Amino acid sequence: MSLKKFTQYKLLFLMLLSLCVLLPFIPDQAYHIPGPDIAKQNFHVIEFNDQGQAHDERQWQGLDARILQPNNGTPPELLIFVHGWHHSAQPQDENFIAFEQFYQQMAESDVQRNLLGLYIGWRGDKYDPFWLDGSEDATSWIEPLDFPTILQRKRVAKRIGQEGLSQLLDKLDSLVTQHKLLRYTVIGHSLGGSVVLHASKNRIKAAIDHQQDNPNLFLLLNPAVPAKDYQPLDTLVSLDRQKPSMVVLQSKGDFAVKEAFNYIKDGERAVGNSWAITHDIDRCSGGNCNTPMKMPSALMAHDIIPGCMMTLPHSGWKVRARLQARRTVQTCPDANMQAVWVLAVSDEIVSGHNGILTPAHAKALSEVMSMIDLYRNQLPKHAVETPANQDLGALAPESDNNSSEAEKAVPAEPVVIVEPLPEQTIEPTPEQNSSTEPPTQPRVIEVAPKALVAPELELEPESKPNEAVEGQSKSKLETE
Fold first, then answer.
1. How many CA within 13 A on the CB side of residue 325?
2. The whole model's pTM is what?
3. Where are the alpha helices (DSSP H) in 253-296?
4. Whole-Å CA distances, 344 to 214, 255, 349
5. Where are the alpha helices (DSSP H) in 37-93?
6. Helix 166-177 and helix 191-209, axial crossing angle in degrees, nearest 10
7. pLDDT, tens digit, for every residue of 120-179?
8. Which terminus of the chain faces fewer neighbouring Cβ atoms within 10 Å, N or C?
9. Cβ neighbourhood burial of 222 (10 Å; 0-12, 13-18, 19+)
């Protein structure tokens, strides 16, 4: 090849590279201009710039005005989503469209709630090298090649969490204290999980230190967060059986966070792929948690321990607490009393890094919120304390001292009974008499006790008290 041709090819390559890097510059701007009817809308958007400041203060003013509007005396609830890397608040963004649908499904499935939706937008990409971008595909193997661009966005995400979103949550906390807002649930995906973590961890710790009730929930989906950023929350224990303040859901099939993240961060592991894991979530066989299934004897023995196995029966999810997860988490009650649950999630439930905000996730989150209401923001007692007598009476959740006669009854929990197979009548030899007989193979019998129906929340007999917590998985979730 001549020097002239080589130079031409080199120039062509540099031109293509420049186009890939320079042309897709993404401006730091707002995409939603508040209209005159913003105070009447149920779905809102608030956008922050790279400095963590609101792009347009009128966006918050519109949401505040909508929250303060009376609605049959029922204060509203707020469902918040924070997108991550590669995304923004553009109306055509996949995350924006998916969360609108997710919110609508939850609002329509639970019409008695005064549910409002809030999408938090920020510049998830400064440059978008489209030739490497596979963010639209939940199963993409191309996107991890673009991972180095996450470093600059990670710093911005932390700043937005510590400043913009934190200040917004301060305003919402004030409304909750004044009983003008019932509660808020914040979902953060990928780098959006980093935004949420840095906005919430100090307030979670402060609420526990001051023994304050925490009605709100933070849900992190496949968060691009190193374990060291989570560590200050590791030793926090919930108060008086209070539900977890934060739930981290990490898909076992998430290549971007579980593998690529380790190399980009010099071997540092993400929180959902580290020592921090406290629980596992899997899909029940055929989506029916009442269907008996074969399992190893060790797992069967684990599941019959009160509080070690819980289900979301309507969603068909099974949650297991880990025994001896780490030094401070040795038992299932230890895991269930953590202020932060970190769950390793089956790929059937959250597919890869971007398989989020699906109809199944909306159904699961609705189920969790109903259980939180049913149990008044607490875990059933048997999930955090091993009963002295492991019978149906001991497994039933205890009522509060202040409850009235009209207090709701709660569904009893199906119990798994392990019985030995009948022994064969074989005459032992003299040698056998002195030896220990080998244990017989156990068989599993599922017994569903008669369920008590709650007057206001007519849950099916298969519902379990522990569902109040596990379903928090579920909500989570959206393409990034």
1. 26
2. 0.73
3. 255, 261-264
4. 24, 13, 11
5. 57-67
6. 40
7. 999 998 876 654 454 445 445 555 555 566 778 889 999 999 999 999 999 999 999 999
8. N
9. buried
